[in-house]
Amino acid sequence: MNSLASEFKDMLLRTGLIPPGARCLAAVSGGSDSTALLLLLAQAAPELNLSLTAAHVNHNLRPQAQADADFVAELCAKLGVPIRVLSANVRQRARELKISLEEAGRWERYNFFLKLKKELNIDLIVTAHTADDQAETVLMRLISGAGTAGLAGIRTLRDGVARPLLRCTKAELQQFLKDEGQSWREDGTNHIPSAPRTAVRLNILPEIKKLNPSAVKAIARLADSAREDEDYFQTEAVKFWQRSLVKPPFPSSSETAFPRAALRALPPPIRKRFWSLLYRRASGGGNEDAPFSLGGALESCHYAALENFLFLDNEKRLNLPGGITALWRQNLLFFTKTGPETERKIRPAAEIEFTAEDLRSLLRSENSRSFAFPAFECRLTLKSEAVSFRPSAYAVCLDPLGLQKLLAEGHKLNIRSRREGDVFFPAGGRGRQKLKKYLQAEKAPRERRDEIPLLCCGSAVIWPLGLRADQNFLAKPGQRDVISVKAELAFPARSLSDRP
């Protein structure tokens, strides 16, 4: 076995980048890098028990494109590797999306790969990015003024895509192919310095190599070092999220809230990664099976705007790309995705099968009764006990006499959304108020007011969950034999295990 092939197999066994038994989809264009990747994977497959499939995209941009596809198909047949081919109209895609041909080609490739990943139950997409690609990427990002995240370059494994050749140079791979007696296809456009990447490849990198012949691997080491720093900062941002996330005072599954003081106290490098994480989560990122998308990332101007936003007053808003809105409310920072796709309808009333006799029975025992309301993402627990805790946004003590009177009259306990004309007497001596006015005074966001669950008995509003209860139903301090009502709200959260 060729020494490079042996080193490649040993690297996979040592790092677990492509674990034994994995189902792999190799992206093969026919160039030297991807041809070498296919050969290396095919040679390692028997010992690692890999299931290998090749994927080729014909971009139909050059006269030789069909010949490239035929070459890859013949090589796969020779190696006994099944292949899937996509013939794409990249020019039309570029016009539709109003992007460059290079971006449109990448869009077509990754959407094709992700489709095959799902269809064939693939574990990993494997691409042939090399140390030269890493050096070009780092240099391009350095020129554009990227920070540590940009200098980290291409990751060996991210979002289900493995890049096992990042430590190999193009020259090493071409020598491997020559030793194996294997030809490859040349893309003439790689030698035309019109696109920024090819200009870096043909003009800038050769000049750097004159100063340091090992520049490619030196830049790769820089990327490794930057990646280590970036991973640390991102891990700290995730930890901050986990310890500082506040449940919003108004039930919603599409908002996240964080205290102003905690955000200001964060070191700037960690806060910047936190902004990125927060934006990614709010916009629905992190799903590796989602189609490849264009744009939508925060840029330096957005980070600067968020830093300034830290010092603005409550009720101030900041609009970000992708329909994301940041809002200060009661010194909590809310991040919400706006737009029709997040609008929610008023939920119908859900009655509780709980009679006056049930209430008397509960008062005579130490048992509790729980009621779940999936439509409102909440659960209520009623229990008989003395007033032993101070009422909070999600726990109140009710005087059973008021409840018993309404239940005896045939009214039902229920959970519902607000209705026109709802009134109640919020605790705190404010007197009788329209619920609409009360929610406005409490600065409940307009788009969330119809979503707040109301505990009612008949038409009487007892308690808007998360806010003050009606004082006519509240137990008096020191009163015994009261009914405590505790609410548990469900706030679905995405996994934080994958980093932004």
- Strand fraction: 15-25%
Mean pLDDT: 85
Give the fraction of residues assigned to helices. Answer: 40-55%
- From the N-terminal CA to the C-terminal CA, the straight-line distance is 39 Å
Number of domain units:
3
Radius of gyration: 31 Å
Q: Which stretches are poorly predicted, pLDDT < 50 over at least 5 residues?
A: 286-295, 340-344, 491-500
Largest sheet: 6 strands, mixed
How many beta-strand elements?
20
Structural class determined from secondary elements: alpha+beta
CATH topology of the largest domain: Rossmann fold
Q: Which architecture of the largest domain does the CATH hierarchy give at level 2? A: 3-Layer(aba) Sandwich
Blueprint of the fold:
Blueprint: H1 3-15, E1 23-27, H2 32-48, E2 51-58, H3 65-79, E3 83-87, H4 90-97, H5 101-119, E4 124-126, H6 131-143, H7 148-151, E5 157-158, E6 161-162, H8 170-180, H9 196-211, H10 215-244, E7 255-259, H11 260-265, H12 268-282, H13 300-309, E8 317-320, E9 324-329, E10 332-337, E11 350-352, H14 356-363, E12 368-373, E13 378-385, E14 395-398, H15 400-408, E15 413-416, E16 423-424, E17 433-434, H16 435-441, E18 454-457, E19 460-464, E20 482-489
Parallel strand pairs: 1-2, 1-4, 2-3, 4-6
Antiparallel strand pairs: 5-6, 7-10, 8-9, 9-10, 11-15, 12-13, 13-20, 14-20, 15-18, 16-17, 18-19
Helix pairs in contact: 1-2, 2-8, 4-5, 6-9, 6-10, 10-12
Q: How would you describe the overall organization of this protein?
A:
By secondary structure, this protein is an alpha+beta fold. It has three domains: 3-228, Rossmann fold (3-Layer(aba) Sandwich), CATH 3.40.50; 245-342, Uridine Diphospho-n-acetylenolpyruvylglucosamine Reductase, domain 3 (2-Layer Sandwich); 350-489, no CATH class. It is 40% helix and 18% strand. The chain is built from 16 helices and 20 strands. It has a six-stranded mixed β-sheet with strand order 3-2-1-4-6-5, sandwiched between helices. The chain has a four-stranded antiparallel β-sheet with strand order 7-10-9-8. A hairpin with a 4-residue loop joins strand 12 and strand 13. Helix 4 (90-97) crosses helix 5 and helix 6 (131-143) crosses helix 9 (196-211). It is elongated and about 90 Å long. The chain starts with a helix and ends in an 11-residue tail after the last strand.
